Amino acid sequence: MKKVLTKLLVIIMTFNVILCSVAVNAANEPEQAEKQKAIINVANAYYARKDKIKYSQSKRQLNVTPEQAKNLDSSAFIYNIYKQVFGVEIPAKTAEFIKEAQKGCKEKYKNKIKANNEHIISYITNVAKVKANIKDLKNILQPGDLIVWTKKKNGKEHGYIVMYIGDGEIIRCTGTKTKGGIRKDKITRLIDKNGKEYLGKSKVEKIAVIRPLNASYIK
Asked: Could you tell me the sign of the dihedral formed by the alpha carbons of 204, 202, 174, 117, in that order?
């Protein structure tokens, strides 16, 4: 009888833990949604001034509002969004994001495109191995998530970063011949044309998928 009561108590305690976990997650969902909405609103504020903002690595500005911004690069753009929303400093260079991903990614999410709710969603160095699955990125991303990658150009490694804003869209600061440094694209722009665009290019060596909202510096 004692053993039966003990087992019953364990079952009840386990069930209570599950209920509490579900309740906490349910409570956190609206808060997470509000944070995502705030990120998108600030990103759109920069986008509204896209004709006034130029892409520049040498003149890039940190700690500037959308109204103050004149020169940004891909990482400064992302840095400023999170700075405006949360008042915190996230990595300000793509190399720092890659280093963060390399250090923080759990082993089971390395070299895989797999949905999870970690800070570092994925860190990929074997790009050839996962290239066929890159299209699955659009199914695991949430607004505010970052996609970072590095590639070789003229023998040197260059980094780039974009932010997912929902509805299959990304926003980024880019140096192009098009008017304005801030632009929006469908996420398929990164992964379509039979893997020949961006993340599918053979020169891409490292990819990181990062969810700053789950990072300690946001919490």
From this structure: negative
Asked if residue 27 has pLDDT above 70, the reply is: no
Report d(CA 174, CA 159) in Å as an integer: 12
Of 89, 88, 83, residue with least CA distance to 68: 83
Residues near 91 by Cβ (< 8 Å), separated by ≥ 6? 75, 79, 97, 100
Q: Are 125 and 205 in contact (CB under 8 A)?
A: yes
What pTM value is reported for the model? Answer: 0.83
- How far is residue 134's CA from residue 41's CA, in Å, rounded to a whole number? 27
Q: Is the dihedral of CA 141, 142, 143, 144 positive or negative?
A: negative
Percent of the chain with pLDDT over 90: 62
Q: Are strands 120-124 and 204-210 parallel, antiparallel or unpaired?
A: antiparallel
Q: Give per-residue pLDDT as tens, 42-75.
A: 999 999 999 999 999 999 999 999 999 999 999 9
What secondary structure does DSSP assign to 146-164, as a single string?
A: EEEEEEEETTEEEEEEEEE
Note whether 166 and 184 are within 8 A (CB): no
How many C-beta atoms lie closer than 10 Å to residue 110's C-beta?
15
Contact 162, 172 (CB under 8 A): yes
How far is 216 from 109, CA to CA, in rounded Å? Answer: 19
